[in-house]
Amino acid sequence: MRKLLAILAVITFCVAANQFVACKSNTSSTESDSGNDSLQKVLERGKYLAYHVANCMDCHSKRDFTKYAAPMIPGTDGEGGMEFNNKMFNVIPGSVYAKNITPDPETGIGTWTDDEILRAMTQGISKNGDTLFPLMPYISFNRMAKSDLLSIIAFIKTLKPIKNKVPDRKLMVPMSMIYPANALQPSIDSNRIPPETDKVNYGRYLVTIADCSTCHTPFDKGNPDFSRAMAGGNTFNLPDYAVTSANITPDSASGIGTWTEERFMNKFLPYRKEEAYNFKPGKENTIMPLTYYAGMKDEDLKAIYAFLRTLKPIHNQVEKYPKK
Fold this sequence. Notes:
324 residues, single chain, three-stranded antiparallel β-sheet, mainly alpha, disordered N terminus, 7 strands
């Protein structure tokens, strides 16, 4: 027990000091090596989640919309600034901008504590007490295991600080009308990661923290219609094209009911190679961050498929590329 506490103390100090490579301590070299190994696993988990599952980098970096699936522009990791407005998606009452989540102390989150970042991620409340627009998926992150949340926080603190002042949001309604207080748990302490052997529930967890529902559940009068969860039909209007989210329920006629696991995997795996997205697709493009999700482990993608197969089949024929 004392040895374990010593290792945990080393990890805690290193995270607090933001020194992720080496940390001086009075512990033995064996304990330090073990602590560094544990810390490295935390950072690796955080990076994996931030880039490929919770997908923080999808919104908080710059994307190249001239290429298929709009891959991230290298070197913009976490700098924010992407605009989401009611022209793009008509349920947004105005314009909101993805925040700078790099450790820059002036324009990013360099002065934020872990608790302040955690509160923003799970309760939608920023350092200064403002409530965040729920396009930031804090409702979904409110269901994430605390260990995963802390892994993401530890990782984003290692990002290169980028000075990028993001514009203030411009909403046509007060945030008090939008803040989803009733959808949030007051505490995340009981959240757990299901065992990977429990494919369906583990897949459910991944789908939740990946916030698939925001795009794939149709909206009715400004609110998601959960009676048609994952049935698709939301149209996103980009400057050069419009695209509608797919029906990913197991409906055989309009969803993925006839898809095999292999076909589902092949929706993502090709985008692990640049040649699959490094071209100009014209108006037949997608906002789906395929280049990010392609980095998911095969077993995680298979778990997502297993969970989606358990959903209620809903018939909703979607026109993928509506005319603008």
